[in-house]
Amino acid sequence: MQQIRSQVTERDGLFELEAGSDVLDSPRYNHDMAPTKVRERTWNKWHITALWVGMAICVPTYTLGGVLTAYFGLSVGEALLAILFANVIVLIPLTLNAFPGTKYGIPFPVLLRSSFGILGSNVPCLIRALVACGWFGIQTMFGGLAIHLFLGSVFEGWKSLGGTGEVIGFMIFWALNLWVVIRGAESIKWLETLSAPLLVAVGIGLLVWAMPNVSMTELLAIPPKRPEGASVVSYFAAGLTAMVGFWATLSLNIPDFSRYAKSQKDQIVGQIIGLPLTMFLFASLGVIMTAASVKLVGVTVADPVTLIGHIQSPVWVAVAMALIIIATLSTNTAANIVSPTNDFQNIAPKVINRTKAVLLTGLVGLLLMAHELLKKLGLIVSDVSLETVYSNWLLGYSSLLGPIAGIMVVDYFLIKKQQLDLAGLYRDDVYPAWNWAGFVAFGVPVVLTLLSLGSDAFSWFYSYGWFTGSALGGIIYYGLCVMRAQPSVVKSAV
């Protein structure tokens, strides 16, 4: 006989839900969104480290140094420091927002129900999902190019397809990504674990290939592209904000992964080992490779896929492209599909399961890249480049996501005192449908950010958007919750 009321048990600081009919029959629950059982939390610190190595080693990371020097007016040395500092900074919201995922086994959308409401959680979820779908499309474009170059190195006739071949490669890589995620969290864990050492080996190999053709002294001495005599502070801070924005999305939905961690120690140590150093080293590699590309292939090339495509040996091109395909796959599945899959399910868990949500993610990502795909097929002509799109996104979307990060941290640690009603997060009778404190705390920084775009005096508010947004969002949320005397601890209703 099925139990009517759900029960929550604790094992070594990890909480587990035995769902009764009150939760199982709720429209806010499905199997894929349910809290993980303690026995399902199998990711140790090395799995978490591999996750970050797999996500950080990707084409966009490789090009970050170039983005900072070309678009943000930093020197090479300043750019690399900005990348390192940004990833140390982003560890703070990453580890803090990972705590409730590990403790309660809940994904990001379910955690948001505490701060934005049972129904209100869909608003920040969909904001997060749209950005992820865009990045999914961009990464799939890189993966599709790698497949195109791989097939061109194996089959001579394939090269003549040109842009059409790239579109075919895009669709192949698109389907491969969806297949991996549909198979579930364990397939992602093993993909990341197996790909991490391969990706490190690729980085070392590229470095050995490039170093004889570049002078680090000359590279670091290249003057920055900013007005002569201009203060480095504002340029560095803007670049730092953009680099924080690179993982701003993951700092929100990290519970989607930390819900599988064995312990808080595992998620903390794994992230510390895996993120900052990997990002710094691979971005440094990108700077070195771009500088060396003139001597290596005769022209300046800013991305590794195109650079390797210039190699004359078909065998080495095939091997390198196969490894880049693995690198992009490991990044894309974890960073850009898992979150929107959970976010879309949160809209109507009884109607949208994981498979449907993955397909919806793929469809949105495909539509967002339709412009670029039509360009490659020669059906439209446009000067808009992918590099311009994602370098502008880095600053723009981080300004929107900052307040959400601040609100989540304040809600869990200061308002709820790390105590959530686990069963109540899946029902309609404990938490409000809409938590207006969350929306006011989110809306005020966003409105101020948009207004600052038209004001020279307050342009700094946009330029430092993630920092200003997260701080202001957290402060406003805390003030509103204190004023309405919200209980600091939600009593268990199980």
From TrEMBL:
Cellular localisation: Membrane
Alphabetic keyword roster: Membrane, Transmembrane, Transmembrane helix
CDD domains associated with the record: SLC-NCS1sbd_YbbW-like
Membrane topology: Multi-pass membrane protein
Main subcellular location: membrane
Transmembrane segments annotated in the record for this chain: 49-73, 79-99, 129-151, 163-182, 194-212, 232-252, 272-294, 314-337, 357-374, 394-415, 436-455, 461-481
GO molecular function: nucleobase transmembrane transporter activity
InterPro entries tied to this protein: Pur-cyt_permease, Uracil/uridine/allantoin_perm
Gene Ontology annotations for the cellular component aspect, listed alphabetically: plasma membrane
Gene3D superfamilies per record: Hydantoin permease
Family: Belongs to the purine-cytosine permease (2.A.39) family.
PANTHER family the record matches: NCS1 FAMILY PURINE/PYRIMIDINE TRANSPORTER, PURINE-URACIL PERMEASE NCS1
Name under which the protein is recorded: NCS1 family nucleobase:cation symporter-1
Species classification: Bacteria, Pseudomonadati, Pseudomonadota, Gammaproteobacteria, Pseudomonadales
